[in-house]
Design goal:
- There is one protein chain.
- The protein has about 350 residues and is of the alpha+beta class.
- The protein has helices spanning about 115-135, 170-190, 190-205, 245-265, 310-315, 325-330, 340, and strands at about 5-10, 15, 65-70, 95-105, 140-150, 160-165, 205-210, 215, 230, 270-275, 290-295, 300, 305, 320.
């Protein structure tokens, strides 16, 4: 048995590793995965082409990606400016911003892992455009692009899609990451994420795949069993700064990771996938390194990583697995999607 703490430099917190707990007796709840294939089109899906959404608006007859303003947004530029005055030390303000939905494909049956590299690259270009457009607005301080995939993370609609929250504030994780990256650059003259990539390449055991300009690895300080980072090798503050060649390489590595996830247990692998991008508030973010993080909730085919006392109560993660072992599992997974292999 090994008890170890590993420092998470991007979050400035310790992660506790106790990998022997992965095999502890378990009598709690499990996650079941339906093996039935979804149809390409569902008449009552509010994301399928030509269908009506909850707002009464009709989707376009789209053939590739499709972006629209969320009908039930979490933030809005129309947020009431007059709010009730809180008491004592409490403060409030309008939750202003823009929320959008990005449909990856017109086919209800597909996931991001099942798109071709050209289709993934097209999605990345859409993300570039959205970041530039929304981040260029004076009232927007940060553009958070993300996907929540699978019922295990609370998604009710399986149609392949992600979301965008462009807000009048910077989300806390990005705020912390920007601060520590700036501090590291000031103190060392080096980019923090470049030091992370260098350490991962020097060790080698946690690298999943790489090509000329992009890399994927399961970090030394991973909090989730199958937490993976996908990053360009050159430092860019956002996806918008990637060249065409870098974008193509990034799409290739991102797709490989997604396929490996699904191939682990031959099921649509659930995850939360945020794009970590610099704020758009006009600050100096030369030390910020754009990357995508995957936070999958499963530690076994049907077992969730529950957030409990250490995580919710104490604020630090306790990992039941060793990053080196999980990286080896992902590295060994096939690069050909299991559905294609069967076909």
């Amino acid at each position: 048995m090994v008890w170890e703490e590993r420092w998470h430099p991007l979050r400035e917190e310790w992660v506790i590793l106790a990998a022997h707990r992965q095999n502890r007796p378990w009598s709690g709840g499990t996650i079941e995965h339906a093996g039935t294939a979804a149809p390409d089109y569902v008449p009552d899906c509010y994301l399928c082409p030509r269908n009506m959404r909850v707002s009464g608006k009709q989707n376009l007859d789209y053939a590739s990606t499709f972006v629209f303003d969320n009908d039930l947004p979490s933030v809005s530029l129309d947020a009431p400016k007059e709010l009730s005055e809180p008491v004592g030390i409490y403060r409030n303000r309008p939750a202003q911003g823009i929320a959008r939905v990005v449909c990856y494909s017109p086919l209800h049956s597909l996931t991001l892992a099942e798109l071709e590299t050209d289709e993934v690259a097209e999605l990345l270009r859409v993300w570039q455009e959205q970041y530039r457009e929304l981040g260029g607005r004076a009232e927007i301080k940060h553009v958070l692009i993300f996907e929540n995939k699978g019922e295990a993370v609370g998604v009710s609609n399986p149609h392949p899609h992600g979301q965008i929250y462009a807000t009048n504030f910077v989300f806390k994780t990005i705020e912390t990451e920007a601060r520590v990256s700036s501090k590291h650059l000031s103190e060392t003259g080096r980019v923090l994420f470049q030091d992370i990539i260098a350490a991962e390449k020097q060790d080698g055991r946690r690298i999943i795949c790489e090509n000329e300009t992009a890399i994927a690895f399961l970090p030394y300080f991973a909090r989730y069993a199958y937490e993976v980072y996908v990053a360009p090798k050159a430092t860019h503050p956002s996806i918008a700064a990637l060249s065409d060649a870098e974008l193509r390489d990034f799409a290739d590595i991102l797709r490989q990771v997604l396929i490996k996830f699904d191939n682990l247990w031959h099921l649509p692998f659930p995850f939360v996938m945020p794009l970590h991008q610099a704020p758009t508030d006009g600050g100096d973010y030369s030390g910020f390194h754009f990357h995508i993080e995957f936070h999958p909730p499963l530690r076994r085919p049907n077992l969730l990583k529950y957030l409990a006392g250490p995580e919710i109560g104490g604020g630090n993660f306790l990992s039941d697995t060793a990053p080196e072992e999980k990286a080896a599992e992902l590295r060994a997974a096939s690069d050909i999607h299991y559905k294609q292999a069967r076909g």
